[in-house]
Design goal:
The complex is a heterodimer. Chain A is an alpha/beta fold. Chain A contains twelve helices and 15 strands. The longest helix of chain A has 20 residues. Chain B is an all-alpha fold. Chain B has one domain. The chains are: A alpha/beta, B mainly alpha.
């Protein structure tokens, strides 16, 4: 009897002897790890993992280790919603992702209801116009980037008649609606408005339509893999009109897939590992060392997302999931203070970003920065 | 007008791709009563086998040869022995369903063991283009078209004019009698599968540079080729090329003149019309069976 009591006491003591280290910060990531957006989600995930590894090696956030779980949305908004619901059930500190705007649109209400901050990769303009106080971008929204694209096409490319080729999902629709308004403001006519499907493999008819219209330039706004395919088709059909995009058209993965069909394509790019910024170059080297390939902008976005969590938590001075969103709103962070954020950045009340941007042209398989567009504030 | 010519030429190029995939369908059906719903994935896989060999350090030409040989072994011999033979005993429909399962398994395996992302694939056709009727067409597309036509002509000659080919047809039409007259039926059927595997490996080599190597590229190709085979005529190898070209052109014209969202619907509507009014296909032979 005595030995049973002793054993029982020992067990109880062991159960209550909590280990002497701080509770982990749990981040839940839902990303496009398969499907048409596999490039987006894989790069995003790798960026996150690199950031988590670096921060943990340096002692974590306020002494707490970060633990991240990844779930696959299969580039499908329905699946994304289910995965986010499952992730929210375990009360994560912050929700990361998805990258696809369509998936963000259906998952944002879930995170907002749970009061969990969501740092995602979507760029559709409407995402930060839903009145969601918990949603944050890692890259420019279309309302920030499209005016810059329209300005460049009207003033530098001197385009008067532009064919718009866009992907028929929330990302593409948002971009097309925004750029059409911007073209209208500048008196640039839309020669053709061509919608394509996500995951589309064959672009012969779409390129033929562009060639048949009297466009003197084309604005191409598709997701990554489709961008590569259409660039190849433009080359195959011998189309010579200048092509302009916004980030996706000239991504590193797109250049890899399209080969020399990508040369000559131009774009406004918010994030690129070819940026003439020391911290970005250093990040690129660390990424290449760990993963053996050059990341595209999605890799940078994932990396930034984790450092945004760090910046917000350090501003609060404590680990409080309910305070992350408030801490980020209106926050300006200099890269000198928070090197993980790579460039100075300001987050506004809607979760939009103000940061330096670049105008890029692809030459010989590399992005070449043609113009640097400064941060507005 | 030039736009229409552009679209038709582009459609013929796309259609040649569908035809290459459809040839295998019709060949397998004609010579061994096999419906292979994994045919699209059969065209997707050889490219990945070649990429896998190349990633071990082999030069491209060696990767192509080894990849093709691996494809013949897996998609020809192994497919027949491990899937077709055991399932055919139970009838054509169980076999067809088993090939549907095979297509899912192949897709997910490539996604799991290679990558979910698209991969670039070098082209063996020279880059550059030629002008036909005033519209520019790439040498890659010309290559695909030429290969498709050559494959159909070659197969037709083989099946009709050579002794082995006629033996293959005999084995398909009536295996019992064929055995009686001394045709090595099992060997003929195996030869069919090997020819199909070689064809899909070559199709893969031609098509993948255009569509990029991605685990899901078999889905659209397989569906388009299936429709092409039925529209053209499932029981004639030349039905594959007629069907493929028709579907390619119809698909492109639909995308341009109807709308991108409905472009996939038009070939399917054509399929329904053909099944209702000419079920043997455009150039197929009308077949009857006693039940």
């Amino acid at each position: 009897m005595k030995s049973v009591l002793a054993a029982g006491a020992a067990l109880l003591a062991a159960a209550f002897a909590a280990p002497a280290f701080a509770q982990d910060i749990e981040l839940a990531d839902v990303a496009e790890l398969s499907g048409g957006g596999a490039t987006v989600g894989t790069n995003w995930k790798n960026g996150i993992d690199l950031a988590v590894e670096e921060i943990n090696a340096a002692g974590g956030i306020l002494g707490h280790r970060i633990v991240v779980t990844h779930a696959d949305s299969q580039s499908n908004p329905g699946v994304a919603r289910a995965q986010v619901q499952k992730a929210l059930d375990s009360n994560p500190y912050v929700l990361l992702g998805p990258g696809y705007s369509g998936s963000v649109k259906v998952t944002a209400p879930l995170a907002a209801e749970a009061g969990v901050a969501q740092i995602m990769g979507g760029e559709a303009a409407e995402l930060t116009r839903m009145g969601d106080k918990f949603l944050f971008r890692t890259s420019f929204g279309q309302q920030s980037s499209m005016p810059k694209v329209a300005k460049y096409m009207a003033e530098d490319m001197k385009a008067k008649n532009v064919a718009i080729v866009w992907v028929n999902n929330d990302f593409g629709k948002g971009g097309r609606d925004t750029i059409t308004k911007e073209f209208d403001k500048r008196g640039v006519k839309v020669a053709a408005d061509i919608s394509t499907e996500a995951g589309q493999a064959d672009f012969a008819a779409d390129v033929a339509k562009v060639k048949a219209s009297d466009a003197d330039a084309a604005f191409v706004y598709l997701n990554e893999e489709e961008s590569a395919r259409i660039l190849k088709e433009f080359k195959r059909q011998g189309a010579t009109l200048p092509l302009m995009g916004e980030t996706t058209l000239v991504g590193q993965k797109v250049i890899e897939l399209a080969g020399d069909a990508a040369n000559g394509a131009r774009a406004h790019v918010g994030l690129t590992t070819d940026a003439p910024v020391e911290s970005v170059r250093a990040f690129r080297n660390r990424f290449v060392k760990k993963y053996n390939y050059v990341p595209d902008h999605n890799g940078i976005k994932g990396y930034l997302a984790v450092y945004m969590v760090k910046a917000a938590t350090e501003k609060m001075g404590k680990v409080d999931p309910k305070g992350v969103a408030d801490a980020l709103h209106g926050l300006t962070i200099k890269a000198a203070d928070q090197p993980g954020l790579l460039m100075d950045v300001t987050f506004d009340e809607n979760g939009d970003i103000d940061r330096e941007g670049f105008l890029v042209e692809v030459e010989n398989g590399k992005q070449v920065i043609k113009q640097i567009l400064p941060k507005l504030q | 007008m030039s736009n229409l010519v552009d679209l038709v030429i582009a459609g013929l190029a796309t259609g040649a791709i569908y035809a290459l995939v459809a040839i295998g369908f019709t060949l397998l059906w004609q010579t061994s009563q096999t419906i292979n719903f994994a045919q699209g994935e059969f065209v997707m896989l050889p490219a990945f086998l070649m990429l896998a060999v190349a990633s071990l350090g082999a030069p491209f030409w060696l990767a192509v040869v080894l990849g093709a040989l691996l494809s013949i072994a897996i998609l020809g011999v192994a497919f027949k022995k491990l899937l077709v033979d055991p399932m055919l005993r139970h009838g054509v429909l169980p076999l067809a369903i088993a090939t549907m399962a095979l297509s899912v398994a192949m897709k997910e395996s490539v996604k799991q063991f290679f990558s979910a992302e698209a991969q670039p694939f070098p082209s063996i056709a020279p880059s550059g283009s030629v002008s036909i009727f005033g519209s520019s067409i790439s040498l890659q597309s010309v290559g695909v078209f030429a290969f498709g036509v050559a494959a159909v002509i070659g197969l037709n000659l083989f099946l009709e004019r050579t002794s082995t080919g006629r033996q293959m047809q005999a084995a398909a039409q009536n295996p019992t009698v064929a055995r009686i007259i001394g045709v090595p039926v099992e060997r003929m059927i195996m030869l069919t599968f090997v020819i199909n595997a070689a064809l899909v490996a070559l199709a893969s080599l031609l098509v993948t540079p255009i569509y990029l190597a991605k685990f899901s590229s078999g889905e659209t190709l397989g569906q388009a080729a299936f429709i092409a085979a039925i529209v053209g005529g499932f029981n004639q190898v030349r039905g594959a090329i007629v069907g493929g070209l028709v579907i390619g052109v119809v698909d492109n014209l639909a995308a341009a003149y109807v709308s991108t969202q409905y472009r996939a619907a038009v070939p399917l509507m054509l399929l329904i019309v053909i099944i209702l009014f000419r079920p043997e296909g455009l150039v197929g032979r009308s077949e009857e069976r006693t039940v």
